Amino acid sequence: MSQFDVVIRGGTVVTASDSFMADVGIRSGKIVAVTENLDDGAKTIDACGLMVMPGGIDSHVHLAQPAFGGPTMADGFETGTRSAIAGDNTTVIPFALQPRGASLRGSVVDYHEEADGQSFCDYGFHLIITDPTPSVLAQELPALVDDGYTSFKVFRTYDDMALNDRQLLEVFSCARNCRALVMVDCEGYDAIKFMTERLEAAGSKAPYYHAVSRPESVEREATHRAISHAELTDVPIMVVHVSGREAMEQIRWAQNRGLKIYGETCPRTSL
Q1: Per-residue model confidence (pLDDT) at position 265
Q2: Does domain 56-265 have CATH number 3.40.50.300?
Q3: d(C-alpha 220, C-alpha 188), whole Å
Q4: Structure pTM?
Q5: Between 3.30.70.380, 2.40.30.170, 2.60.40.3390, 2.30.40.10, what CATH number should domain 6-52 receive?
Q6: Closest by Cα among 36, 40, 54 to 4
């Protein structure tokens, strides 16, 4: 009987630091050997001429999530994770959204029901907090972090999701106590509403004006404000889908001061 369940033979193994020719031995779902000339496994895969590398982790996806305005996003766990596998991603981390007025724990349970039996790859959940009530911050969120949901997202815009400064500080403080990571969507809610209303009044409603309603200053200001709150509460944060140089410069400024501020890029095509 072979000592390996699967042997991947003759490929170019790619790691975080190097690439080299080797065989890969797998037992009980884990890689247990990376070397030359392994014996055949119960199953042997010929990888000659191919690269053997870890599957990707897409840490920011939205699946089976209600979109703004009511409808559910087109991709659920079945289609979304099938696409992930086709693109060599073997783990995805979508967001369990707490609708305002709903239990955070109940939202996670409901989201698991969307995923159960539908996913083609491994997955975990970030949380989205839209209603940081005292019970959520004192009971539900700490308990969920203990259960392994160690990252959550908050928004600075959108009517049914935006948190004000006090709410943001309360969430950051809770994250500090729980040793969790906060992901922040940094756009200035009031500035966007102001610009949007002016554009609508002028009849400027074409898709092009979506970008006009969100100049770089809107992202820069919200990013700086989130960084300031993170500094005050001593909590690490990740500014998600950074799309402008000015917001990036705020993040670099914070990092140069020794703050634990991270950024996620968001490449876009021009309108």
Answers
A1: 87
A2: no
A3: 9
A4: 0.85
A5: 2.30.40.10
A6: 40
